[in-house]
Amino acid sequence: MQNAKVLALLEDPALQELTSTVSPVLPDDWPAGATPKTTEGPYYLSFGQSLLRSDITEDRKGVPLTLRYTVVDAVTQAPVKGARVDTWHCDAFGYYSGYLSHDPDTFPGSEALSHIEPSDESRFLRGSQYTDESGGVEFGTVYPGWYHNRDVHIHMKVYVDDREVYVGQLHMPDDVNDIVGTLPPYDGHITLERLANDEDLLYQSDNGQDLVPDVRPVSEGNPEIGFIAAFTLAVVTS
Protein backbone atom coordinates (compact mmCIF):
# COMPACT_ATOMS: atom_id res chain seq x y z
CA MET A 1 0.00 0.00 0.00
CA GLN A 2 2.73 2.46 0.96
CA ASN A 3 4.73 1.81 -2.23
CA ALA A 4 1.61 2.30 -4.34
CA LYS A 5 0.92 5.62 -2.60
CA VAL A 6 4.48 6.83 -3.18
CA LEU A 7 4.31 5.87 -6.86
CA ALA A 8 1.05 7.78 -7.22
CA LEU A 9 2.65 10.87 -5.68
CA LEU A 10 5.68 10.58 -7.94
CA GLU A 11 3.33 10.72 -10.93
CA ASP A 12 1.58 13.87 -9.68
CA PRO A 13 2.65 16.64 -12.14
CA ALA A 14 2.17 19.41 -9.56
CA LEU A 15 4.40 17.71 -7.01
CA GLN A 16 6.98 16.87 -9.68
CA GLU A 17 7.20 20.58 -10.43
CA LEU A 18 7.37 21.42 -6.74
CA THR A 19 10.42 19.24 -6.13
CA SER A 20 12.16 20.00 -9.41
CA THR A 21 11.78 23.77 -9.58
CA VAL A 22 11.17 25.03 -6.06
CA SER A 23 13.55 22.96 -3.94
CA PRO A 24 16.90 24.73 -3.55
CA VAL A 25 20.09 23.52 -5.17
CA LEU A 26 22.89 23.76 -2.62
CA PRO A 27 26.21 25.26 -3.77
CA ASP A 28 29.27 23.04 -4.10
CA ASP A 29 30.95 24.77 -1.14
CA TRP A 30 27.97 24.23 1.20
CA PRO A 31 29.48 23.26 4.59
CA ALA A 32 29.13 19.59 5.48
CA GLY A 33 27.67 20.45 8.88
CA ALA A 34 25.06 22.88 7.61
CA THR A 35 21.37 22.08 8.00
CA PRO A 36 19.82 21.13 4.63
CA LYS A 37 17.65 23.78 3.04
CA THR A 38 14.29 23.27 1.39
CA THR A 39 11.47 25.34 -0.11
CA GLU A 40 9.51 27.89 1.91
CA GLY A 41 6.28 26.57 0.37
CA PRO A 42 3.32 28.55 -0.99
CA TYR A 43 2.04 29.91 2.33
CA TYR A 44 4.89 32.07 3.63
CA LEU A 45 4.02 35.60 4.72
CA SER A 46 6.78 38.13 5.34
CA PHE A 47 5.71 39.30 8.78
CA GLY A 48 9.08 40.21 10.32
CA GLN A 49 8.80 42.73 13.15
CA SER A 50 4.99 42.77 13.09
CA LEU A 51 4.68 39.32 14.69
CA LEU A 52 7.46 39.33 17.27
CA ARG A 53 5.99 36.99 19.87
CA SER A 54 6.71 33.76 21.69
CA ASP A 55 3.15 32.38 21.81
CA ILE A 56 1.79 31.94 18.30
CA THR A 57 -1.26 29.81 19.17
CA GLU A 58 -4.01 32.48 19.21
CA ASP A 59 -7.37 30.65 19.06
CA ARG A 60 -6.17 27.38 17.53
CA LYS A 61 -7.08 24.15 19.32
CA GLY A 62 -4.65 21.26 19.56
CA VAL A 63 -2.05 19.43 21.58
CA PRO A 64 0.34 22.01 23.11
CA LEU A 65 3.80 22.13 21.56
CA THR A 66 6.86 23.96 22.82
CA LEU A 67 9.12 24.56 19.83
CA ARG A 68 12.79 25.26 20.57
CA TYR A 69 15.30 26.29 17.92
CA THR A 70 19.01 26.76 18.50
CA VAL A 71 20.84 28.64 15.75
CA VAL A 72 24.57 28.01 15.34
CA ASP A 73 27.18 28.93 12.75
CA ALA A 74 27.62 25.95 10.42
CA VAL A 75 31.38 26.48 10.17
CA THR A 76 32.36 27.37 13.75
CA GLN A 77 29.37 25.80 15.57
CA ALA A 78 29.24 28.95 17.72
CA PRO A 79 25.78 30.19 18.79
CA VAL A 80 24.37 32.95 16.60
CA LYS A 81 23.00 35.74 18.78
CA GLY A 82 20.43 38.19 17.40
CA ALA A 83 19.31 36.10 14.44
CA ARG A 84 15.63 36.43 13.60
CA VAL A 85 13.76 33.15 13.37
CA ASP A 86 10.39 33.06 11.59
CA THR A 87 8.24 29.96 12.02
CA TRP A 88 4.81 29.00 10.70
CA HIS A 89 2.66 25.92 10.22
CA CYS A 90 -0.89 24.72 9.64
CA ASP A 91 -3.49 24.03 12.32
CA ALA A 92 -4.94 20.65 13.33
CA PHE A 93 -7.09 20.51 10.20
CA GLY A 94 -4.43 21.67 7.74
CA TYR A 95 -5.40 25.35 7.48
CA TYR A 96 -2.76 28.08 7.28
CA SER A 97 -3.55 31.53 8.61
CA GLY A 98 -3.98 34.03 5.82
CA TYR A 99 -5.36 31.26 3.61
CA LEU A 100 -8.62 30.21 5.21
CA SER A 101 -10.33 30.08 1.80
CA HIS A 102 -7.92 27.33 0.65
CA ASP A 103 -9.19 23.79 1.17
CA PRO A 104 -6.38 21.82 2.87
CA ASP A 105 -7.72 18.58 1.40
CA THR A 106 -6.77 19.70 -2.12
CA PHE A 107 -3.38 20.74 -3.48
CA PRO A 108 -2.82 24.28 -4.84
CA GLY A 109 -2.36 24.45 -8.59
CA SER A 110 1.14 24.14 -9.99
CA GLU A 111 0.94 27.75 -11.17
CA ALA A 112 1.15 28.88 -7.53
CA LEU A 113 3.67 26.49 -6.01
CA SER A 114 6.24 29.11 -5.07
CA HIS A 115 3.80 31.51 -3.40
CA ILE A 116 0.07 32.10 -3.09
CA GLU A 117 -1.29 35.54 -2.25
CA PRO A 118 -3.15 35.53 1.11
CA SER A 119 -6.93 35.62 1.18
CA ASP A 120 -7.49 37.05 4.67
CA GLU A 121 -5.86 38.84 7.62
CA SER A 122 -5.59 35.93 10.08
CA ARG A 123 -2.07 35.25 11.39
CA PHE A 124 -2.39 32.35 13.85
CA LEU A 125 0.50 29.87 14.15
CA ARG A 126 3.00 32.38 12.77
CA GLY A 127 5.64 34.23 14.71
CA SER A 128 9.11 35.67 14.88
CA GLN A 129 11.78 35.99 17.58
CA TYR A 130 15.42 36.97 17.95
CA THR A 131 17.90 34.44 19.30
CA ASP A 132 19.48 34.95 22.72
CA GLU A 133 23.16 34.61 23.64
CA SER A 134 22.94 30.83 23.38
CA GLY A 135 21.38 31.08 19.91
CA GLY A 136 18.02 29.94 21.22
CA VAL A 137 14.38 30.88 20.69
CA GLU A 138 11.25 29.21 22.02
CA PHE A 139 7.72 29.30 20.62
CA GLY A 140 4.51 28.17 22.24
CA THR A 141 2.15 26.65 19.69
CA VAL A 142 0.06 23.55 18.99
CA TYR A 143 1.15 20.40 17.22
CA PRO A 144 0.57 20.82 13.46
CA GLY A 145 -1.94 18.79 11.50
CA TRP A 146 -1.68 17.76 7.87
CA TYR A 147 -2.98 18.60 4.42
CA HIS A 148 -3.06 17.14 0.92
CA ASN A 149 0.08 15.30 -0.24
CA ARG A 150 2.25 16.47 2.68
CA ASP A 151 3.57 14.98 5.88
CA VAL A 152 3.29 16.75 9.25
CA HIS A 153 5.80 19.60 9.12
CA ILE A 154 6.79 23.04 10.41
CA HIS A 155 8.39 25.84 8.38
CA MET A 156 11.20 28.12 9.51
CA LYS A 157 13.42 30.91 8.17
CA VAL A 158 16.51 32.48 9.68
CA TYR A 159 17.70 36.04 9.07
CA VAL A 160 21.04 37.52 10.11
CA ASP A 161 21.28 41.32 9.83
CA ASP A 162 17.97 41.27 7.90
CA ARG A 163 19.49 38.89 5.34
CA GLU A 164 17.87 35.51 4.78
CA VAL A 165 20.46 32.81 5.50
CA TYR A 166 18.23 29.77 5.83
CA VAL A 167 14.82 28.40 4.87
CA GLY A 168 13.62 24.91 5.68
CA GLN A 169 10.97 22.57 7.03
CA LEU A 170 10.98 20.26 10.03
CA HIS A 171 9.39 16.85 9.50
CA MET A 172 7.72 15.77 12.73
CA PRO A 173 8.48 12.18 13.83
CA ASP A 174 5.99 9.61 12.57
CA ASP A 175 5.72 7.82 15.91
CA VAL A 176 4.60 11.06 17.57
CA ASN A 177 2.31 11.92 14.64
CA ASP A 178 0.61 8.54 15.09
CA ILE A 179 -0.12 9.34 18.73
CA VAL A 180 -1.28 12.91 18.15
CA GLY A 181 -3.50 11.81 15.27
CA THR A 182 -5.65 9.81 17.70
CA LEU A 183 -6.30 12.83 19.93
CA PRO A 184 -8.87 15.60 19.49
CA PRO A 185 -9.17 17.69 17.42
CA TYR A 186 -6.83 15.83 15.02
CA ASP A 187 -8.99 12.70 15.09
CA GLY A 188 -11.73 14.81 13.53
CA HIS A 189 -9.74 15.28 10.32
CA ILE A 190 -11.19 12.14 8.76
CA THR A 191 -11.49 13.45 5.19
CA LEU A 192 -7.78 13.08 4.42
CA GLU A 193 -5.20 10.42 5.23
CA ARG A 194 -1.93 11.72 6.66
CA LEU A 195 1.29 10.98 4.76
CA ALA A 196 4.19 9.33 6.54
CA ASN A 197 7.52 11.12 6.24
CA ASP A 198 9.00 8.68 3.73
CA GLU A 199 5.94 9.20 1.52
CA ASP A 200 6.51 12.96 1.36
CA LEU A 201 8.37 14.09 -1.77
CA LEU A 202 10.15 16.98 -0.04
CA TYR A 203 11.33 14.65 2.70
CA GLN A 204 12.69 12.37 -0.02
CA SER A 205 14.30 15.06 -2.16
CA ASP A 206 15.69 17.44 0.48
CA ASN A 207 17.46 15.22 3.02
CA GLY A 208 14.39 15.10 5.21
CA GLN A 209 15.98 12.56 7.55
CA ASP A 210 18.27 15.40 8.71
CA LEU A 211 15.30 17.67 9.41
CA VAL A 212 13.48 15.63 12.05
CA PRO A 213 13.39 17.35 15.47
CA ASP A 214 13.82 15.66 18.82
CA VAL A 215 10.27 15.48 20.19
CA ARG A 216 9.51 14.38 23.74
CA PRO A 217 6.32 14.37 25.82
CA VAL A 218 5.92 16.84 28.65
CA SER A 219 4.53 13.97 30.73
CA GLU A 220 5.26 10.36 29.77
CA GLY A 221 2.05 8.50 29.05
CA ASN A 222 -0.01 11.70 28.86
CA PRO A 223 0.34 12.96 25.28
CA GLU A 224 -2.63 15.29 25.58
CA ILE A 225 -0.57 17.46 27.95
CA GLY A 226 1.82 18.30 25.15
CA PHE A 227 5.25 17.86 23.63
CA ILE A 228 8.59 19.67 23.43
CA ALA A 229 10.34 19.75 20.05
CA ALA A 230 13.99 20.81 19.82
CA PHE A 231 16.14 21.34 16.74
CA THR A 232 19.53 22.90 16.03
CA LEU A 233 19.80 25.00 12.88
CA ALA A 234 23.36 25.17 11.58
CA VAL A 235 23.32 28.11 9.15
CA VAL A 236 25.82 29.78 6.84
CA THR A 237 26.10 33.34 8.13
CA SER A 238 28.50 34.83 5.57
Rough outline = globular
Superfamily (CATH H level) name: Aromatic compound dioxygenase
The biggest sheet amounts to: 4 strands, mixed
> Radius of gyration in whole Å, from Cα?
17 Å
Please give the number of β-strands: 8
Mean pLDDT: 88
List the helices and strands in order.
HHEEEEEEHHEE
Q: What's the structural domain tally?
A: 1
Which class best fits the helix and strand makeup?
Answer: alpha+beta
Helix content: 10-25%
CATH class: Mainly Beta
From the 3D coordinates, which CATH architecture would you assign? Sandwich
Strand order of the largest sheet: 4-1-8-7
User: How many DSSP H or I helices?
Assistant: 4
* CATH topology-level fold name: Protocatechuate 3,4-Dioxygenase, subunit A
User: Proportion of β residues?
Assistant: 15-25%
Compose a concise summary of this entry.
By secondary structure, the protein is α+β, with helices and mostly antiparallel strands. It is built from 4 helices and 8 strands; from the N terminus they run ααββββββααββ.
